[in-house]
DNA sequence: TGATATACTATTTTT
DNA sequence: TAGTATATCA
């Protein structure tokens, strides 16, 4: 809270602010802004919508706005509510505000993620959740103000909800469950309700409930239209689940927002406090807000109406997680008189890349529409397009290209690589610190060339361009030199591969491993989601609060203590019949000798250990770090992994050490547990220059000089499933994803696709993505050799010279767009529908193709070569290949050996 | 109870 | 195909 009590904050808010805000002495932080950014920063009063296209400096505008609020004395740190979606974004904002203001600013207590801020609020008012869950309103509130909807009389109130009247309510020290706990809990509920978990899996239910929570529907608020969900039992189970959570004094991620919204709706006095308190509200990535978040913001903003939302409807890619693009589209309706600022000046990508991305996204119908501009004169390189035979060939080709681009491969280049000179501003700083005088841009660049300290960065290039504009005679040469140097040369950190689905990463990992190309996968399982971390955390949780049943369940038999299903059931039963926690139930089992042999002995030891740990936590005898280590040792958990012979065991031990180290940043175990559930960051940034591999979703907000976008095939990208499930909306979201991908690239963007790919172990052929057709041809350079779709196998292995090693070469383009293969692609792609059912695509059994063969036939397959048919199964042939051995192959990928010369694919 | 065999399913995942 | 979850057996 940075030293402010609630009262003080209110007092501060009540006092009119001094007019020193208007004292317009020079504000250096405003200098670097373009007019639109400046407008967004300086329009402090009233609602503001900042539509910020990719790479237009929206974080800069947002942070500068906060700095401006503070520097002008318009608001104090604690009066500003600034919310982001990720911890990373929140951190970055804090840092940049600090940078703008100098070190003088004290922390901003209300800058954080939606969840972090709401947890803070919920801990203050937790007790308001639970009492009278359903008594208050019998109307369903429509978030979008079409008027309240009366509850239909035929819908009975779910049992669980109204039963919560017996004084049960949330307590301020509630635990936050993650997805894993959530599923386990639901599984128990399903088992208790005798629901067949096979037909109605807990995962599905959790998805449904999450969806409802995202829409801000409490169990008694779920519309009738949803009553058939989950075999008609969805709503009841939801109510039961909420009740169970209350009993456990726990909330899940969805609850964090939902509960706070509920409190605001039912307790106007509480809401009013915060409306007064938060005089200025700022929201990042507004296009990603769901209904709960939207309601929360709208309620809070009704106070001072100083809300500034930043977003880009074209980058809305989380619709499947409940995000409502509609929120950004209707901002002006929600906040009449809203000031709309468009940031359209792009500082990231070259004109060619920008044009390609703009051309693609123009195919979307539902959007506000923005035109990204750049002042960059040099067009840069066209978006490169490459087709390959299969996924492996694609990975191979990308690997080769990266090696070509890798500046570090040449020693000479490495010597010239000097991040210190990344831009002119940094150089000025460096000189100031070193006591050297200032330097002109011109001299800076000249010197950089003379000393060989040139960093091939867009910023350097832009400096040279600036000199060109000023008609500086020497700049012409410099421009040439910079460009020569820059062609194809990057550090590995500057290269990224962005895939649609994580399984695509594998091909690249395999390939890069075998050629020794350093890479790093971004995303993956997060640190706090790893099994060993969660186990360890469960031990800590139990030590801190012995009644944490979920934690107990998790660790009773981890490591193995001979306490299987039966023993655990006995414990459960004992606990329930005595109305006590599982730990107490276990204690009773031990005392009453309700268990046999090994289990009894082990359980007694466990119960005793937990008692001891709890006592030590309370006594604060040891430091919490020592205590944590002790718990892990005494429980046998460390030993468990030490004895484990699987290859990942050492890594897991390493992670445990990491966890203990992380504890050092907190005062005690409780504090650690409270914060950790919201910080799911993967902070283990190993050093070293590496290529990044990640999903397109993970890439949002990032930028790289060179970007590879593989797997642009219809069905994979756009994903068939998205199109099947969400039709045109789904397709448009996929297109936005493509747009996000392209706009990550600063200088070189390479799109590729494969004609064949193995999907679930089956070879499948695919069409190039429809998004490829939508790229404006003038901004695309096709590297795909004409042979790929005419000459068949081997075309992909064409020598580099034929693959267009010169990025400026336009000659290939016309050739390929006109080649028979390309035309055939176009013709075939014309048959595609928006939401062709998956079955039609995948389950076609081409019996004609099978019947063309009999056992003993000599055949040819593009990948495996020549072989002999050994048998026929359905639409598949069993073939003994000369080189590749026995394989099962779909018949239409095979031709008889004598036709092998004329293969269409 | 614990280990092995079989069956099943399979995007994207900010917190 | 491969990874996981459940079923079965020792």
TrEMBL record:
<dbReference type="InterPro" id="IPR000212">
    <property type="entry name" value="DNA_helicase_UvrD/REP"/>
</dbReference>
<keyword id="KW-0378">Hydrolase</keyword>
<feature type="domain" description="UvrD-like helicase C-terminal">
    <location>
        <begin position="351"/>
        <end position="701"/>
    </location>
</feature>
<dbReference type="GO" id="GO:0016787">
    <property type="term" value="F:hydrolase activity"/>
</dbReference>
<keyword id="KW-0238">DNA-binding</keyword>
<keyword id="KW-0413">Isomerase</keyword>
<keyword id="KW-0547">Nucleotide-binding</keyword>
<keyword id="KW-0067">ATP-binding</keyword>
<dbReference type="GO" id="GO:0004386">
    <property type="term" value="F:helicase activity"/>
</dbReference>
<feature type="domain" description="UvrD-like helicase ATP-binding">
    <location>
        <begin position="31"/>
        <end position="350"/>
    </location>
</feature>
<dbReference type="InterPro" id="IPR027417">
    <property type="entry name" value="P-loop_NTPase"/>
</dbReference>
<comment type="similarity">
    <text>Belongs to the helicase family. UvrD subfamily.</text>
</comment>
<keyword id="KW-0347">Helicase</keyword>
<dbReference type="Pfam" id="PF00580">
    <property type="entry name" value="UvrD-helicase"/>
</dbReference>
<dbReference type="InterPro" id="IPR014017">
    <property type="entry name" value="DNA_helicase_UvrD-like_C"/>
</dbReference>
<dbReference type="InterPro" id="IPR013986">
    <property type="entry name" value="DExx_box_DNA_helicase_dom_sf"/>
</dbReference>
<dbReference type="Pfam" id="PF13361">
    <property type="entry name" value="UvrD_C"/>
</dbReference>
<protein>
    <recommendedName>
        <fullName>DNA 3'-5' helicase</fullName>
        <ecNumber>5.6.2.4</ecNumber>
    </recommendedName>
</protein>
<feature type="binding site">
    <location>
        <begin position="52"/>
        <end position="59"/>
    </location>
    <ligand>
        <name>ATP</name>
    </ligand>
</feature>
<dbReference type="InterPro" id="IPR014016">
    <property type="entry name" value="UvrD-like_ATP-bd"/>
</dbReference>
């Amino acid at each position: 809270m940075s030293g402010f009590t609630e009262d003080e904050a209110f007092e501060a808010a009540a006092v009119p602010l001094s007019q020193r805000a208007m004292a317009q002495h020079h504000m250096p932080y405003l200098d670097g802004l373009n007019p639109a950014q400046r407008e967004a920063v300086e329009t402090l009063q009233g609602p503001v919508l900042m539509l910020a296209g990719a790479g237009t400096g929206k974080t800069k505008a947002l942070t500068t706005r906060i700095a401006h609020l503070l520097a002008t004395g318009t608001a104090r740190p604690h009066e500003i509510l600034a919310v982001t979606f990720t911890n990373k974004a929140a951190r970055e904002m804090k840092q940049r505000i600090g940078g703008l203001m100098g070190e003088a600013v004290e922390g901003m207590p209300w800058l954080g993620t939606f969840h972090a801020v709401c947890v803070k609020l919920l801990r203050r008012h937790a007790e308001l959740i639970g009492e009278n869950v359903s008594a208050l309103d019998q109307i369903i509130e429509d978030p979008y103000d079409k008027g309240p909807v009366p509850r239909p009389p035929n819908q009975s109130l779910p049992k669980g909800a109204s039963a919560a009247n017996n004084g049960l309510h949330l307590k301020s020290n509630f635990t936050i469950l993650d997805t894993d706990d959530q599923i386990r809990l639901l599984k128990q509920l399903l088992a208790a309700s005798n629901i067949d978990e096979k037909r109605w899996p807990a995962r599905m239910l959790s998805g449904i409930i999450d969806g409802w929570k995202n829409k801000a529907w409490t169990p008694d608020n779920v519309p009738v239209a949803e009553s058939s969900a989950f075999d008609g039992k969805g709503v009841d189970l939801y109510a039961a689940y909420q009740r169970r959570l209350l009993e456990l004094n726990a909330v899940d991620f969805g609850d964090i927002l939902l509960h706070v919204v509920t409190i605001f709706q039912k307790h106007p006095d509480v809401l009013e406090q915060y409306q007064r308190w938060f005089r200025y509200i700022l929201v990042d990535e507004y296009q990603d807000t769901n209904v709960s978040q939207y309601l929360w913001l709208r309620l809070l903003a009704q106070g001072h109406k100083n809300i500034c939302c930043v977003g880009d409807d074209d980058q809305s890619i989380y619709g499947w997680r409940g995000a409502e693009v509609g929120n950004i589209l209707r901002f002006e309706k929600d906040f009449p008189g809203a000031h709309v600022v468009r940031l359209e000046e792009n500082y990231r990508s070259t004109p060619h890349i920008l044009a390609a991305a703009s051309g693609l996204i123009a195919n979307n119908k539902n959007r506000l529409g923005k035109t990204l501009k750049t002042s960059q004169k040099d067009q840069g390189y066209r978006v490169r397009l490459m087709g390959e035979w299969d996924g492996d060939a694609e990975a191979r080709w990308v690997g080769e290209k990266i090696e070509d681009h890798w500046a570090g491969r040449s020693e000479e280049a490495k010597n010239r690589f000097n991040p210190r000179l990344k831009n002119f501003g940094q150089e000025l700083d460096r000189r100031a610190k070193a006591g050297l005088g200032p330097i002109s841009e011109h001299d800076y660049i000249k010197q950089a060339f003379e000393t060989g300290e040139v960093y091939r960065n867009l910023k350097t290039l832009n400096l040279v361009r600036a000199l060109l504009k000023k008609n500086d005679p020497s700049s012409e040469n410099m421009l040439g030199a910079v460009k020569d140097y820059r062609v194809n040369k990057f550090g590995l950190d500057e290269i990224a591969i962005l895939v649609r689905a994580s399984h695509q990463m594998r091909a690249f990992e395999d390939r890069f491993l075998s050629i020794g190309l350093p890479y790093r996968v971004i995303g993956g399982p997060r640190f706090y989601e790893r099994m060993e971390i969660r186990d360890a955390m469960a031990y800590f949780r139990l030590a801190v609060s012995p009644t944490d049943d979920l934690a107990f369940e998790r660790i009773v038999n981890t490591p193995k203590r001979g306490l299987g299903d039966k023993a655990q059931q006995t414990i459960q039963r004992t606990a329930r019949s005595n109305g006590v926690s599982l730990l107490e139930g276990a204690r009773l089992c031990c005392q009453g000798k309700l268990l046999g042999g090994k289990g009894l002995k082990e359980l007694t030891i466990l119960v005793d250990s937990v008692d001891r740990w709890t006592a030590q936590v309370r006594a604060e005898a040891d430091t919490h770090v020592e205590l944590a280590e002790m718990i892990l040792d005494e429980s046998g958990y460390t030993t468990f992994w030490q004895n484990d012979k699987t290859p990942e065991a050492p890594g897991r031990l390493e992670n445990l050490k990491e966890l203990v180290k992380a504890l050092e940043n907190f005062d005690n175990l409780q504090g650690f547990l409270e914060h950790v559930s919201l910080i799911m960051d993967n902070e283990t940034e190993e050093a070293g220059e590496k290529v990044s591999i990640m999903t397109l979703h993970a890439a949002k907000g990032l930028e790289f000089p060179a970007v590879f976008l593989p797997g642009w095939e219809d069905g994979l990208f756009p994903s068939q499933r998205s199109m099947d499930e969400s039709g045109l909306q789904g397709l448009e979201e996929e297109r936005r994803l493509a747009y996000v991908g392209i706009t990550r690239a600063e200088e070189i963007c390479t799109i590729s696709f494969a004609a064949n790919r193995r999907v679930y172990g089956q070879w499948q052929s695919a069409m190039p993505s429809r998004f490829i057709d939508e790229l404006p041809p003038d901004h695309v350079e096709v590297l795909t050799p004409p042979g790929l779709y005419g000459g068949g196998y081997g075309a992909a292995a064409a020598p580099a010279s034929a693959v267009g090693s010169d990025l400026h070469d336009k000659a290939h383009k016309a050739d390929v767009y006109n080649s028979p293969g390309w035309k055939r692609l176009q013709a075939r792609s014309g048959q595609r529908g928006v939401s062709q059912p998956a079955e039609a695509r995948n389950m076609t059994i081409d019996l004609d193709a099978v019947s063309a063969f009999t056992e003993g036939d000599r055949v040819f397959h593009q990948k495996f070569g020549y072989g002999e048919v050994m048998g026929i199964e359905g639409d598949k042939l069993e073939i003994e290949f000369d080189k590749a051995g026995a394989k099962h192959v779909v018949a239409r990928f095979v031709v008889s050996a004598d036709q092998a010369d004329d293969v269409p694919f």
